[in-house]
Amino acid sequence: MQDILAEIERLKKKRKAIILAHNYQPPEVQDIADFAADSLELARYSMDIDAEVIVLCGVRFMAEMTHILNPEKIVLLPDEGAGCPLADSITPEDVRRLREEYPDAIFLAYVNTSAAVKAECDICYTSANILEVIGKLPADRRLVVLPDRHLASWAKRNTGRDIIIWQGECPVHQAIREEDVLRVKKEHPDSAVMVHPECKEEVIRWAELVGGTGKMLRFAKESDYQSYIVGTERDMCHRLKREVPQKIFLPANREAVCEDMKKINLEKVLRSLQTLTYKIELEEHIRERARKTIERMFSL
Ligand code: SF4
After folding, report:
1. In what order do the strands lie in the sheet with 143-146?
2. Which protein residue's CA is at the shortest distance from atom 5 of ligand 1?
3. Is the CB of 59 under 6 A from ligand 1?
4. What is the pLDDT of residues 130-163, one digit of tens each?
5. pTM of the prediction?
6. What is the whole-number distance in angstroms between the Cα of residue 24 and the centre of ligand 1?
7. What is the rounded distance in angstroms from the CA atom of residue 119 to the CA atom of residue 231?
8. Are 279 and 257 in contact (CB under 8 A)?
9. Which of ligand 1's atoms lies nearest the C-alpha of 58?
10. Which of 58, 103, 132, 261 is 20 to 30 A from 25, alpha carbon to alpha carbon?
């Protein structure tokens, strides 16, 4: 173990590399990262760093986004097969077909989509900023919010906008049930419930806070609650415990594990630095159009 850590450090210096990790990464990967955060924070951070190589410990759409924003840097995904079933639930052809059906609508692509899908859409959003993004769009326009049905429904309930919903879902958040939250709440009645908006409505309605992982972290730091029931991927609790060690964090469902996020481990991070794999490459016309979709979000 010590050998792997020392070798990762040595190669990071040699390659002028930075390691970024999403909040759902295995704890040992989060702990060696230079920066651990949610998708939006990772994307923003990647644009400000002085590095030649970025090892993105997350899933493919995150690595693609990092590459789109940093075309001059080498972006590596340590496991080529780390994908996302939610992102895979929609294709560029699906978006083109929807465009024909709703020609006047504004198309919003979740960060959890492929670069090719982003290229077909008008503006990007994340779970952290979806309500703000929608709030800045013309009130008289219909919106197509892709691809998570629970997140889009939550946005529809909270904004009252005319929203077309795609039927994609994240299997990890789908697995968190109302009875899971109620069971943990019964055992720890003074806990606050924090849930991700990709959860089902019957789960969301018990929450003191609905938001992405960055928002959960801020709530844990700033609120007076001492204990939290966390309705998202299990290893978010590791991040929360590391940042707010004096408080208690309880997963709503210990089985809520993203198998794709767990494909990455220290050995694969080391191999990635040794061999410069797996390099993210996109066709230029896709990269350029997807970049515009992402930049429209940043410009709001
Ligand atoms: S947690 Fe869900 S949305 Fe996130 S990467 Fe895993 S499958 Fe995709």
Report:
1. 123-125, 106-110, 143-146, 163-165
2. 84
3. yes
4. 999 999 999 999 999 999 999 999 999 999 999 9
5. 0.96
6. 9
7. 31
8. no
9. 5
10. 132
204 lines ligand 1 (CB under 6 A): no
Average confidence score pLDDT of the chain? 97
Mutate to test the pocket of ligand 1, among 172, 199, 216 (most ligand atoms within 8 A of CB): 172
Distance between CA atoms of residues 299 and 226, nearest Å: 37
Among 25, 42, 59, say which to mutate for ligand 1: greatest number of ligand atoms within 8 Å of CB: 59
Residue 228 confidence (pLDDT) = 98
CA nearest ligand 1 atom 1, residue: 258
Q: How confident is the model at residue 107 (pLDDT cuts 50, 70, 90)?
A: very high
> What's the CA-to-centroid distance between 105 and ligand 1, angstroms?
27
Listing DSSP states for the chain in one string gives -HHHHHHHHHHHHHHTEEEEEETTS-HHHHHH-SEEE-HHHHHHHHHH---SEEEEES-HHHHHHHHHH-TTSEEE-S-TT---HHHHT--HHHHHHHHHHSTTPEEEEESSS-HHHHHHSSEEE-TTTHHHHHHTS-TTS-EEEESBHHHHHHHHHHH---EEE--B--HHHHT--HHHHHHHHHHSTTPEEEE-TTS-HHHHTT-SEE--HHHHHHHHHHSS-SEEEEES-TTHHHHHHHH-TTSEEEES-TT---TTGGG--HHHHHHHHHHT-SBP---HHHHHHHHHHHHHHHH-
Determine the distance separating the centroid of ligand 1 and the alpha carbon of 84, expressed in angstroms.
5
Is the CB–ligand 1 distance for residue 258 below 6 Å?
Answer: yes
